[in-house]
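Example (one chain per record):
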Amino acid sequence: MRKEVLIAVAIAVLVVLLVGSLVYTLVFNVPKSQYVSLENSYTTLQGEKDDLETQLEAIQAKYPLQHFASKGELQDWIDNHSYPTTWGDDDEFDNALQAQIDAMNEGYLVGIQMDWFSDLGSYWIGNSAMAGSVLYHFRVDYGQLIAMPFP
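Predicted structure:
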């Protein structure tokens, strides 16, 4: 009887090993081409992740956006940015938007300002920014700062 039990156990062990080997082959035996393709995808994704982390660090270095410390700092910023002279509302808005984008990319908070002059029947489109405790309106193509102090 003991011999029969040993034979049954041996057969059971062989069956388990055979089934385990079959499952391992089906699940874990990936063809070499698939492995290489997955490895290449992983390497590509790792590179993209590193690039995105670098971009994120650059963005985080600029935020939160800051006001200009002084009128001189704002004037220097305006003097260092040139945009084409504008001849219509669309061009003025494009310049104001580009100035806002450029300021944001350099860590400054600059808004777009649009005022309607009913006596002239036209808009004034430019930018606004805080420098110290004063709000300034300006157009980069003119370079003139107009102070609008808070009450």
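Caption: Residues 8 and 70 are 91 Å apart (CA to CA).
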